[in-house]
Amino acid sequence: MKWQYISILVLFTWFTGCKPEAGGGEYYSIQGFTQGTTYHITYQHPTESDLQGRIDSVLKAFDGSLSTYDSTSIISSINRNKEHIKTDTLFRTVFRESSRVYQITGGTFDITLAPLINAWGFGPGDKLEVDSAMVDSLLQYIGMDKVALVGDSVYKSHPEVRLNVNAIAQGYAVDVVALYLEDLGCRNYMVEIGGEIRTKGVNPKGSFWRIGVDRPEFGNMIPGQQLQVIISMHNRSLATSGNYRKFYEKNGVRITHSIDPATGYPRDSHLLSATILAEECMTADAYATACMVMGLEKAQEFINSLSKTDAYFIYGDDLGMYQVWHTEGLRKYIETP
Asked: Which of 243, 207, 202, 176 is nearest to 7 (CA)?
């Protein structure tokens, strides 16, 4: 569902039937395609060796609720103003978390950006010839004060208000799969979808899961080729947002996917990559997107105002050199590749 403009490399070998050092069953790994990207899942289960069919069914149901690329999904039906559409638990969870993040970020994170996302060419359909008049006309439909969830129904202040949850839904898909594994009795796992990750317990070697984050070189399309940092994870989620893979140039100007709801224009700043660690992946996903729109200084202030949240920012200085900033809580969990 989200364009794969981020890159996370899971630093271990994909094992099938790898016996762990401790009890609890063997580790198994599966991989596949979903939401326009790939997924990789490693889990320890005492009896089940192949959960792929069941997990694919979970992901298919997820798309039926929240994918803007599925014309029959709940969110697509709402965007088309189809009457008598009832939302499901998946949709309502994402909507409520989006509303919360919208409030605490001062509107920087906004799922009503769909008209502008589409116009700039980062959603379904072709990009348009965007000018100031078009931006001004579309801004009147932007803002979560223009949409409400009442019971299981969505109400919009204008039929042109549309939703795009790609900046949070992929992280939530990770959460949904992770909780499904826990319901099946998995005590140790790593779920990765399009670079968004949630872990529990330990890896097949009995250690924390080790995640490599790419250096944000513009046009770097090969995950893992140029790592910036390795982060050890344990019972946490991680999401990264960056402008170095999903962009295009027009008249010599770089157009990125990080669109500022306040101006309607793509946000280009010194902040090149924002990696967030939090308990839930959908929260980390939304925060990472918001930080890229905020820019470095405001993103630092925002992260420092939160509890149980860590961040690793990569930014360019005035000389074009890479610099990093991270929260103190990450210090003992990061290492140089």
From this structure: 243
pLDDT tens sequence for the chain (337 residues): 343 333 444 554 344 445 554 556 789 999 999 888 899 999 998 888 789 999 999 999 999 999 988 999 999 999 999 999 999 999 999 999 999 999 999 999 999 999 998 887 777 666 667 889 999 999 999 999 999 999 999 999 999 999 999 999 999 999 999 999 999 999 999 999 988 999 999 999 999 999 999 887 655 555 555 788 999 999 999 999 986 555 445 555 555 568 899 999 888 778 999 999 999 999 999 999 999 999 999 999 999 999 999 999 999 888 778 899 999 999 999 998 7
* Pairwise CA distance, residues 94 & 99, whole Å: 9
CATH number of 61-164: 1.10.3980.10
Partners of 277 in beta bridges: 238, 310
**DSSP category for residue 141:** T
d(CA 59, CA 249): 34
Domain ranges of the chain: 61-164
CA atoms of 121 and 75, how far apart (whole Å): 19
- 175 touches 237 (CB < 8 A): yes
- pTM of this prediction? 0.90
Q: Are 122 and 190 in contact (CB under 8 A)?
A: no
The β-bridge relationship of strands 253-256 and 322-326 is unpaired
Per DSSP bridges, beta strands 209-214 and 8-10 are antiparallel
Four-residue CA torsion sign, 86, 91, 93, 97 = negative
Q: Are the C-beta atoms of 238 and 229 separated by less than 8 Å?
A: no
120, 248 Cβ separation under 8 angstroms = no
Q: How far apart are CA 44 and CA 8, in angstroms?
A: 22
Phi-psi region of 271 (alpha: psi -120 to 50; beta: other; left: phi over 0): beta
**Tokens 């364009």 -> residue:** 3
